[in-house]
């Protein structure tokens, strides 16, 4: 059964401007341990790809927080929710700490998709109950 649905669209230009003002501190606030490594690799090769990656992760976390119905308040934090990629390329959600415990206690599972174009990143999340 569906527990919640969340969607978000994000202006990549706004993410780029914030990154230019705040530097890598901004990426470190939004991205989890695995994500920050991927971001650094992509940004080093092609900065625009790194920024697009950051924007898609920002958007997916916003969509996830809406789908679980709590927004950005504990136990939901930017770094406790990571958007990871399966070997097939399919995106998934990996949770950490108190957020993972809360999610498991509620017996929930998550599905996510992300997309980006030159100016926008978008994400859609569906949360289901496991039974």
Automatic annotation (TrEMBL):
Residues where Mg(2+) binds: 8, 62
A GO molecular function assigned to this protein is:
holo-[acyl-carrier-protein] synthase activity
Q: Which cofactor does it need?
A: Mg(2+)
UniProt keyword Chaperone, yes or no = no
Gene3D superfamilies xref list: 4'-phosphopantetheinyl transferase domain
What HAMAP family has UniProt attached to this entry?
Answer: AcpS
Q: Give its E.C. classification number.
A: 2.7.8.7
Q: Could you tell me what this protein is called?
A: Holo-[acyl-carrier-protein] synthase
Residue intervals of the 4'-phosphopantetheinyl transferase domain: 4-123
Q: Which NCBIfam families match?
A: acpS, pantethn_trn
Q: Which family does it belong to?
A: Belongs to the P-Pant transferase superfamily. AcpS family.
- Function (record text): Transfers the 4'-phosphopantetheine moiety from coenzyme A to a Ser of acyl-carrier-protein.
Q: Which domain of life is it from?
A: Bacteria
Instruction: Give the reaction(s) catalysed.
Output: apo-[ACP] + CoA = holo-[ACP] + adenosine 3',5'-bisphosphate + H(+)
Name the Pfam families for this protein. ACPS (PF01648)
- Please give the InterPro entries that the UniProt record associates with this protein: 4-PPantetheinyl_Trfase_dom, 4-PPantetheinyl_Trfase_dom_sf, ACPS, Ppantetheine-prot_Trfase_dom
Indicate where this protein resides in the cell: Cytoplasm
**Source organism per UniProt:** Roseateles amylovorans
């Amino acid at each position: 059964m569906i527990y919640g649905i969340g969607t978000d669209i994000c202006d990549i230009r706004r993410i780029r401007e914030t990154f230019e003002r705040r530097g890598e501190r901004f990426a470190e606030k939004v991205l989890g341990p695995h994500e920050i490594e991927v971001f650094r690799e992509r940004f080093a090769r092609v900065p625009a790809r790194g920024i697009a990656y950051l924007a898609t992760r920002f958007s997916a976390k916003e969509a996830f927080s809406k789908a679980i119905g709590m927004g950005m308040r504990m136990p939901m934090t930017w770094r406790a929710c990571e958007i990871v990629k399966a070997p097939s390329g399919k995106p998934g959600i990996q949770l950490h700490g108190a957020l993972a415990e809360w999610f498991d206690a509620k017996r929930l599972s998550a599905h996510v998709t992300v997309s980006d174009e030159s100016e926008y990143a978008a994400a859609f999340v569906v949360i289901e109950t496991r039974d």
